[in-house]
Amino acid sequence: MIDRPVGDILKGKSSPTLLSVSATAMVTEAVALMDEKGLGSVLVRDASGAMAGIFTERDLMRRVVRQGRDPKTTPMSAVMTPDVRKVSAAEPIVEVLRIMVEHGYRHMLVADGGKPTGVVSIRDLMRWLILPDAPIAHEGKRGEVHERAKDTVETLRQV
Length: 159
Known about the structure:
Elements: H1 7-12, E1 20-22, H2 27-37, E2 41-45, E3 51-56, H3 57-65, H4 76-79, E4 81-82, E5 86-88, H5 93-103, E6 107-112, E7 115-121, H6 122-130, H7 141-158
Parallel strand pairs: 1-2, 5-6
Antiparallel strand pairs: 2-3, 3-4, 6-7
C-alpha cells in the first residue's frame, strides 16, 4: 500500500483538477478560491501560463497576516512560494511522505511526464495510508485505524 504510486491518490481525490490564479491576482482572490473549493493551496501562474509558485495557508499566515499586508492590495507574486518542488506521479507514496516530512512541506505538486497533474497534501497521504480503500464499519473503526497506522509506522521505520 505505501509503495503504490502517489498518482493513485490523485485518481481518488474529489477535485484532482489543478486550480490556479495569476501572479497578478490579489491575495483575496486566491483565498476565496481556496475557501470555495476547500483547499489548503492554490498554484500561481505567470503571464504566459507557466508555473510561478504555490500559495498555501502557511503563506497566508506568515507572509500576509503576520507581516500586516492588506490582502486586497497584495499580489500573489509578493507572497507565494516560488520554485515549487514536484514529484513524479510514479513516485512511491512512502518517498513522497518522506520528502514532505523531511522538508516540512504540507503540499506537493505531482507531475506526469513533466506535466503537472495535481497537488497532494500531507492530509491526503495520511488519509490514504490509514483509510486506503473502503470505509470502515463504525463498530470496527478504532481498532482498524489503529492497526493500519501501526503498519504504516513500521513500514516507515524500515525505509
